Structure formats: structure tokens, C-alpha cells
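Exercise: predict the fold of this chain.
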Amino acid sequence: MRNLSGFARFLPIAAIYQGQVLNVSNIAREAGVARTTVAGYLEILEETLLCFRLPAYEAKMRVRERKLPKWYWCDPGLVRAIKRSSGALVPEEIGPLFEGLVAQLLRAYKDYRCIFDDMYYWAPAGSIETEVDFLLLRNGKFVAVEAKSGRKFSEKWCKGLRAIAKLEGLQRRVVVYPHGPVLRTEDGIDVIPFDYFANLLAENRL
């Protein structure tokens, strides 16, 4: 019964971490459960394919600078159900849920169609505000993808993609958003709606 009680406290906290850096110690403290127990719970969620971890890209990074992975659930609806959220989405939910949808789509094409070799997120050392959601690796070349849930394109969306521009092997930078026109910034960042992005993946043209 104690284990079930701990798992019940753990689950909604783990759901809050959708699209966030996974800190096991923080989750354990918030849930009032031992760190080792939380680590076991997370492994169960991964082994049952309900969740997965996205590692940070760490080229030439020293061990002490190693970054924690990000955490994603397999379905946005599951996240809401575990948090017991119902009704219309609130603003703070939309971004992480949309990012999770993009993450799961990319993971599916990686695992089942093998259209790229590996998948990371990118965050430069010493920065806590600059990040790229997904960095896709194929044959030594990269595509950087940023997921944004807004309805109208903003130059602010490109901050991370501009910071990563000099990464060796980077071939393309993409912003994915729910709906809207296909755009291209002056410095070559493609801005595309989700359905168009999904078609690019299906045709292996990303």
C-alpha cells in the first residue's frame, strides 16, 4: 500500500514535467518519496512506453557540465488525465502539450521509419534561457527543430535557432507551429505549420 500511495503522489508531479528537464531529486522531494523509488517509477513508465527521456546534445562537453535529460509523455491527453485536468486548455498547458506532440511524432519516425539516427535537445553551456527543442542527427548532419504553440509567428521564436546557427554540420533550422502559412526568415529559418511538418516527415523530406 505504501508503494501504491507513493506512486499516486508521484504521477501527477511527473506529468507536470512534460517537456521539462527531468530532475529526479526535485520530483522525489515534491512527492515525498525516496529518490531511488522515483528513479524506479520513471523506469517503469519508460519500459511500458508511456514516457521517454530526451538527452541533451553534449559534443565536447566536460562531465561536470553534463545536462539532465528532458521528459516527455506518449500522449498529450494522458498528461491531462493524470493531472485530472478537464475542460478547455489553460494557457500554461498549451506550450508543453504541443511540444510533447511534436516530440512523440519525431520519436515515432525515428524508431519506426529510421529517417534519422538520433535525437537530442540543445542548450549551450552557461545558458538557462537559450534552447532548441529538438536536434536531429543523420549521417553526421543536423536539423534543428523548435516547437511553438502560438498562432502568429514571432521573431522571438527564433532565439535558440539563431544561437545554434554555427553548430558544425547544421543543415536546416525549423520552427513548427499549430496553424498558419509557410514562412522563411531572412536568415533562412523555415516556419511551418504542424500538418506540413508531418507531411515532410512522412515523405522523408525534412
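Check your answer against the key: Residues 1-88 form a domain with the Arc Repressor Mutant, subunit A fold (CATH 1.10.10.10).
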